[in-house]
Amino acid sequence: MHSLVSSAKGLTKGVRLAAETAAWAGNAVSRQIRGSRNSVCLVCNNLQPYRHEDAFGRPSAVWDQLSDPEQAARRKELSSVPTLVLEHLSTKKLLECRELDPATGRLKNDCKYCRLLCEIFDAYFIDEWMSWITETKNNMPIQFGLMIREGAPLIVNCWNFTYDKWFQNARVDLELYMSPMPQYPIPGAPTMGPTGIRATDVRSDQCMRFMKESVTECCTTHPACAFQPGAFVPTRLIYIGGGKGALMLCEGLPAGQNVVWAALSHCWGGGNPLSLLGSNIASLKERIDFAQLPATFQDAVTVALELGLAYLWIDSLCIVQDDKTDWEKEAALMGAVYNQAFIVISGASSPNPSTPYLRPREEEWLPKCFSFSPSPGVEIPIMVRQRHLLAAPLEQGLLEPPFTSSWATLKRVGPLYARGWCFQESFLARRILHFAPGAVIYECKTHRKSEDQLPPYPSTAPGTLGEVGPAEQWHMIVQSYTSRQLTFTKDKLPAIAGAATAMPQARTSRYLAGLWSETLLLDLLWQVMPGRTHAPLMTPEHEANAPTWSWASVDWGVTWDTLKSPAPLARVVAAQTEVPGANPYGQVAKGTVTIQGRIKYCRLVADYHRNEHWVSYQKPDGSASRKLHFRTDGALVAGAVPGRADTFACRSRLTTGGTAIETGAVFLCIAKCPWMKSDHVGLILGVSPKYPGFMERVGKITNVSRDWYDTGSDATVTIV
């Protein structure tokens, strides 16, 4: 009976989905027909959320309802407020509003809303280094998107309008609003809602008041943010309770005395700020001269005093910088320092210690004004400013709890957010004040708000969109963390150790160079983000830091594919790492993973000019199988194998990839997924030049057809 009921429900759901799909297609066709007749632009929809087949959701939302019920529920919730999200719009199509049709002599697209967008892009994205128009005409991957919602500022997403070394698809978000907002809607105006005022100086009374009121509100009205001083107290703290003229370093404060501190998250930025050394520890215990502190430290003292705190923790002044043993011991406690702090002060806008974050706001973050004519004889001012946080695709930032896709992928704007160490400092904080370039942002376990924002504020409460398992949580953490840069390769694992110790896996599993023993097979299926295939993979520093099977062995961002119900086809026989320091979650000198499974010898072809990487195998009749594309970990070279005439792939140690290589490799099948075809996933392995007889990871592959597994051979391989 249960199966019959389930079948009936599935049939009903399928019929409903088919009906909605048909309605969507009908609306799309109708809009195309109406567009030219009613002067509704097929590119920007007149910057309105109305009369569009994708209104109240994002493109293709209908087809996501079977695979993403949470997204469907959110779409239903949004249906009470007209909302339209248009992704990946063409700047070539946008520029047609400025181009004449040779046949008619008229504009190809006479849309004043598109012309407004062009004027805005001109103001923000044309300078001596780059022009969005030139990039468009050169067929570069530049595109934009729109998030239009009644009652909210209109958001314009701009992909690849600017260059970012660390993000392949760099994005800038702009928001459009009117100030003051008119009492009644203006016919023909873009759909925009009100927003808050952004101060021109972070030292202003407005910013200080926002900071103190946010903390007070959190302490008095947020049960999820309740703070009780615990048994942990950092080894050293800076006493600031006597004011700026009576700073001193305190060591060995006893626990249980309600010691409360703020912790600073900041960029070292190649600077050499006042630091704690073995030679000056005695003098700093007597007195720290406020005037000798760099600007970011002085600002931290100012903010902590404004909040009424008596202690402050700063890494360079609370860890002995020329004592390796002390550094390793304190680095292992850093997670607790930030997690148990009353508040974390994030100097997000400062690239180095000498640049204060309590300062006048840079001009690029102040609004620009554009004149727009919604109807003949009417001119209205439209304000545009750059957003300090990238907007979430569907909910426009109204919901951003940890471990949602937007939380893992959307970049915050500011020098500090590109810094690897900053990730766990922010992730572990109970509450945090971000002094970002565009605004002061307060974030806690209940919500996130900024000085220039009106309520309702985005919720940050976990579990709002359903549970995400610990394994996927860790993958999201690593994805967000690895998109940042580190000054020293050896810090790759130590800089995320605090986050690792806070994971549920830390109580049930062994930590293996950034992976977990209980999910090791699937953890091994990480892949480098696109666009990093020319970089040399291994240097002496990398090889001393992590084995090739760990994501910590590469310099770029990594991610994982979402696999539905993967069935393991291999078994981990043994896994071990060698940790040279005092922190079991810190730097790794070497490591091995021995896997029993099925392998297939294959030929690997890489063409770096075309950014193509293929594998195939030789069939018994001598012909080659169909080529399969794989994601390489980076530049590869052909390496000799003792006792064999042919070569095998290995990671490039010191040089970038050449024009092309063809060499041997091994496919190791890890798991099978319930897809119709090409349902196997695994690793591409080469040989290790450093450890003869062992293998190293050179890539990851999905969508492998069954014949690769069926014609393979059982083997046990050890990856170093």
Q: How would you describe this protein?
A:
It contains 18 helices and 30 strands. The chain is an alpha+beta fold. The chain folds into three domains: 41-195, no CATH class; 205-358 and 415-450, no CATH class; 515-719, no CATH class. A hairpin with a 2-residue loop joins strand 15 (511-512) and strand 16 (515-516). The relative contact order is 0.07. Mean pLDDT is 86; it is low at 4-9 and 58-68.
Offer a few descriptive terms.
720 residues, alpha+beta, 10-stranded antiparallel sheet, 8-stranded mixed sheet, 18 helices, 24% helix
Mean pLDDT over the full residue set: 86
* Domains, number: 3
How large is the share of residues in beta strands? 15-25%
Q: What summary fits the major beta sheet?
A: 10 strands, antiparallel
**How helical, in percent, are the residues?**
10-25%
- First-to-last CA distance: 53 Å
Low-pLDDT windows of residues:
4-9, 58-68
Briefly say what this structure is:
This protein is α+β, with helices and mostly antiparallel strands and 720 residues long. It has 3 domains: 41-195, no CATH class; 205-358 and 415-450, no CATH class; 515-719, no CATH class. The chain is built from 18 helices and 30 strands.
